[in-house]
Amino acid sequence: MHRVLLIVKGKNMKNIQVNFSGDINEENVRAFISELKNKIEKNHESESLTVLISSSGGSIDIAIELFYFLKHLDCKITTVNTSIVNSAAIIIFAAGEKRIGLSYSSFYVHSVSKELNGIFTVEDLRREAREMEIHTEKIVEILANASAKNKAYWKKLMKKGCFLTAQKAKEIELVTEIS
Question: CATH no. for residue 45?
Fold first, then answer.
């Protein structure tokens, strides 16, 4: 579920505020991007975008696509964790130049996993494992660039699965501000 609003701040500065909640899947993200493009087109003078996020996660591929879409917008991006930012949602959260965690919000990172159905050859399984390794590398690079921790730190957290409070996320600079 998503909602796009135009909020006027100050005399001339406009901020588009969007709400992304629910699963990160192709349908939700495509609809979100489409609605956001329309709002930006109608309000091209907007200087900033605030993305309010509450999601238990979903597809890594589409989360990475949304991350890059947000990073390439010609405005200042702020992301806000309004309750939970888990799994693939943390990738979207990392797109913010300013990243806010509400005091009660939390984050959860874990290893990349994939549900497989059917009969697979060794080559098929190796290809799937390689894809998971590539996704892991992309995620740790995104998180390392958005925080004060390096890729090895994020790999370790992902491997064991780790719950982060807003305060802990601030300590490692994934969150830039607690509200």
Answer: 3.90.226.10
